[in-house]
Amino acid sequence: MRPVRQAPEEQPRVLAARLYELHRETGKDEPYLERWPGDAELFGVLSFAQEHAGRLTGEPYREAAVLRVQLAEWLRLAADPYQLAALDDARTGGTSWKEMALVLRYLDRFGEPNPGSAVNLRKRLYVAVNGGPGDRRQPQVAHLIDQRATEARLAEARRITAGEARYADLDTVARALLKHYEAGEILADPDDDGFWWESLAEAVDDRRSASERANLLVYVRGVLRETQAYAKRSGQAPAATDQAGTALGHAAQLVDLDADG
Fold it and tell me: How far apart, in Å, are the Cα atoms of 90 and each of 87, 137, 235, 236?
């Protein structure tokens, strides 16, 4: 349960620029500064700053060393997606885990390649590239990431299936809500930017895929919650006519929302 190690707080270009400033402040017009790589050439900056580290002394020397540690960490993190892709491409091309272990110098005490270590490297990289902020970079976490992805796909499939089943009714009620809203028969907060209503108006005529049709529920629920919230705050009725009230109630039933808020 140790906390996840985060990336350095400062962005890499900031670190590179600070490194240059330390050398410039110490070296003044030293000729070597003319060869300093640009801030975008991060590995070049790290290599050059390491090469000329001895030109600094005291506190600048210490601060520059810390900056190089942070910059190296950023570069390591930036390389993770490329190494993961390279490993997967090598495997697709027919490279065995044993051969990969030999290339990576994962050897046991007898000097034999250890395929399991190469597999674990791939899992750690997979976590680093595809995991969330709270995922530790450990082989066993790779399975959890795949499990979450599977659960998310299944949840999305269920959402789309449910949306398709009631799309026709949702489309009808969405158009009815818009008609009553535009007629001024549904309560609206004058200080609100109308985001949900505008989104609903755009959505009803642009539902090409099953996923987009399922999203119509989100917009109907959004206008309902917005209307109910303002009705509570203002102490007013959410609908000015019986027809508008019926449309709101029907919509609430379709999206499983309490019509009374």
Answer: 5, 22, 66, 66
Select from 151, 223, 140 the least CA-distant residue to 187: 223
Question: Across the strands, what pairs with 239?
Answer: 186
Sign (positive/negative) of CA torsion 232, 233, 238, 240? positive
Instruction: Name the one residue in this structure whose structure tokens are 């065995």.
Output: 96
Dump the DSSP string for 58-77.
HHHHHHHHHHHHHHHHHHHH
Tokens encoding 151: 């659960």
pLDDT number for residue 154? 81
Tokens at residue 49, please?
């700053």
Check residue 261 and give its pLDDT: 44
Q: Using CA atoms, how far apart are residues 82 and 160, in angstroms rounded to an integer?
A: 34
Whether 17 and 49 have beta carbons less than 8 Å apart is answered as no
Q: Tell me the pTM.
A: 0.52
Please report, for residues 136, 188, 221, 224, 255, the alpha-carbon distance to residue 197 in angstroms, rounded to integers and kept in the order given: 42, 10, 11, 10, 16
Look up tokens 């099953």; give the residue.
210
